Amino acid sequence: MIYDVIVVGSGIAGLMAAIAAKDGTNRVVVITKGNILKSNSAMASGGINAVLNENDKEALNAHIEDTLKSARGLADKRAVTYMCKESGRIIKKLCDFGVKFDRGEDGVILQRSFGGSSEGRTCFIGDNTGALVIQALIKKARSVGVEFLMNNFILDITRSHSRVSGVVTLKRADSTVVVYLAKAVIFAGGGYAGIYRGFSTNPQDSSGDMLSIALRNGMVLEDAEFVQFHPTSFVKSGSIISEAARAEGGLLINDEGVQFTDELNTRDEVARAIFAQINAGHRVYLDMRHIPKETILSRVPSLYKNAFALCNIDISQELLEIKPAAHYSMGGIKSDMTKTSIKGLYVCGECAALGIHGANRLGGNSLLESAVFGELAGIRAREFIQDKDFLHINYDIVIKNINLIQRIFDGDSTKNFNAMKLSAGKVMYEKVGIIRDEKRLEEALDYIKYLRLESASLHCIDKSKENNVELTAILELRNILQLCEAVIHCAIFRKECRGAHFREDFQVTNASPRHTLIKQLGGNFFRIWYERGGFFKIFSKIFS
Length: 544
Known about the structure:
Blueprint: E1 2-8, H1 12-21, E2 28-31, H2 40-43, E3 48-49, H3 57-70, H4 77-96, E4 111-112, E5 122-123, H5 129-143, E6 147-149, E7 152-160, E8 163-171, E9 176-187, H6 209-216, E10 220-222, E11 227-234, H7 244-247, E12 251-254, H8 267-279, E13 284-287, H9 293-299, H10 301-311, E14 320-329, E15 332-334, E16 345-347, E17 352-353, H11 365-384, H12 395-409, H13 417-431, H14 438-455, H15 469-493, E18 516-521, E19 525-530, E20 535-538
Helix pairs in contact: 1-5, 1-11, 3-4, 4-11, 6-15, 13-14, 13-15, 14-15
């Protein structure tokens, strides 16, 4: 198959990119690993930040400053300013696409306050914002002629003359390796907080595939150590409890009835406060009993239903126990406002490091970043392909992936890949989680290296080629373990506390903020260095 632009991922970033890339004559396709409705964007329920009055300079500057402050010195002011200035226009565009934000009696879009914000600027649709925005964008994309290919697992990209020429995928229906040619490719396939399997709000198939592909192609990841832990999730399932609950007045109390933190501090501060309570032997609860039930039913209806369905709790009358969970990756593929080091390859959304979130994401900014930079990536891809021809496919890459799939099918395996995923997630949460130190990080690194060695010998027990879930799970596990190792290396390298990266053994913040960069070298090593300053090479075997 041949397309002018291939977009990988069907979240808000990917859909906005596809819509922007499409014109009257070109072919644009969105490729997804699973169902097009399944993405982190669809689960982001709280809302999207925006300054609705584009002429309100004071409000605009406040949004910029709140974002920069939350990022703890690691945001790119140029990118942040661009995003904030575009926010009002993007909301209008989403409304034109059919998104129906909650409005007051005067018809004006309602906005709530999220943690770390100096004023209320988060537009919302109850507590189901992301899913309803996704539905509207899918409808719009289809109306302009964007195509969709579901159940295609991206294995790699192909390149020719320093330019992307297509993607290699696993067609899950029959386990065949398929090549799709393209003049431009946009990665919008989500982040890597799912590597904390069992302790994450992300879907089970969230494995950071785009970032693994980037590493295998010699690209650089930026600030991989910064993983945001959402302060509130359901204790048993890990499902997210939207920040909308606290924005509407929900309190955080311990089992002694003590309100121990400001609920609307930045997420890193709130998550650490909750974690400290749990480590001290307390249980922590979300308390909404003081909020009128009609307000709960109108502003956070999904939470009300989920609490009753999952915990048999009526939050208008009872406390709901919560815990922090890995939620969002601030680090990602290094880029310059969506452009990457490979010509014709663009990145947006959570898989990209765009200079917005730095060391700590501001609540409500993820959907805004996805919409603004998804659109920008699509525009740039559309402009890039105007005078370009299709390039040749490097079939050595294709054959390499065909052989990989065949090796996984061949042979027998006694190892349990699901148990390995859970073990990796557990060690990441316990040793590379909210609180870190060198001893635990080194222990985690040794264990992940062991799992990587073991994963190289995994094979499918089920030899059927049709919709083989074992095959996809093994491929995901390989990506997960690669990213676990990258995250740990960067966490060891950054010897300071900054935002979501809290080192118990280095409780200082360096005066000069610097980005960590990590790259996989051809000789099976990682190279890690600061963007400003020297580099440090880590000798770490990569198993293929």
